[in-house]
Specification:
Helices cover 31% and strands 27% of the residues. It is of the alpha/beta class. The strands form 2 sheets. Strands 1, 2, 4, 5 and 6 form a 5-stranded antiparallel β-sheet that branches. Strands 7-8-9-3-10 form a 5-stranded parallel β-sheet. It is globular and about 45 Å long.
């Protein structure tokens, strides 16, 4: 089944991450059916791939201008608004995910994973999840804004136990990607095994991603 389907996706978006700060971009003419797995959104920072992924962040609602008369979205086969889809998506680069940032920044990753397990009555432990994503023990006991290179993995762990379906990486350059490659591949493997959708925006200069689905940006003119 398609997790997400987009028809003629057009809009203006503000993408903001700890890596690149705030960046304004557009996404034009994207029509695609996304099934579970990893999709590489290949293009430069302003080519539209990152704009599309960033539009799905729950925190992006205030920074999104989408053209509704031209765009149709479906989640799990049912027509949905972008705001509805954002409930099932997450930003793997976010160091303060949640409604009350101040409180969450004081909570360790481990505690938030434990809360998700309890809330959703999952048959696993926080330690099982830590080992699944190969998160360093000392970082697991810190809040998200103090986990360093394990930020992507920690966000994936928290959102997995909270049953999110769509996982969005920030845009990664040719220079930055090699530093994160091992962790990214591990995250992608785990999330794919759990039937999730992963969006990975990268520079079109990044190589070695042929095992994933690749979508080139900007989209070709029809």
């Amino acid at each position: 089944m398609n997790i997400l389907s987009v028809e003629n996706f057009n809009g203006y978006f503000t993408s903001q991450t700890s890596l690149w700060g705030s960046f304004h971009s557009t996404c034009d003419r994207l029509t695609y059916n996304f099934t579970p797995g990893v999709y590489v959104l290949s293009g430069e920072i302003d080519s539209g791939g990152w704009a599309f992924a960033a539009s799905l962040y729950p925190q992006s609602s205030k920074n999104t201008i989408i053209f509704p008369d031209e765009t149709t979205l479906y989640y799990m086969g049912k027509k949905a608004s972008l705001k509805e889809i954002q409930k099932y998506a997450c930003n793997l680069d976010d160091a303060s995910t949640g409604r009350i940032k101040e409180l969450l920044l004081k909570s360790s990753v481990k505690k938030r994973v434990e809360q998700g397990i309890k809330k959703n009555r999952l048959d696993c432990t926080a330690e099982d999840i830590r080992k699944l994503f190969l998160i360093a023990s000392e970082r697991y006991d810190r809040p998200l804004n103090q986990v360093g290179i394990d930020l992507f993995s920690c966000n994936a762990a928290i959102n997995l136990v909270n049953r999110k379906m769509i996982y969005c990486f920030p845009w990664l350059s040719q220079k930055h990607f090699p530093y994160c490659k091992v962790k990214i591949e591990k995250i992608c493997r785990v999330l794919s095994d759990y039937g999730k959708l992963v969006l990975l925006p990268v520079s079109n200069q990044v190589n070695g991603l042929e095992k994933y689905n690749i979508i080139e940006f900007p989209r070709p003119l029809e």
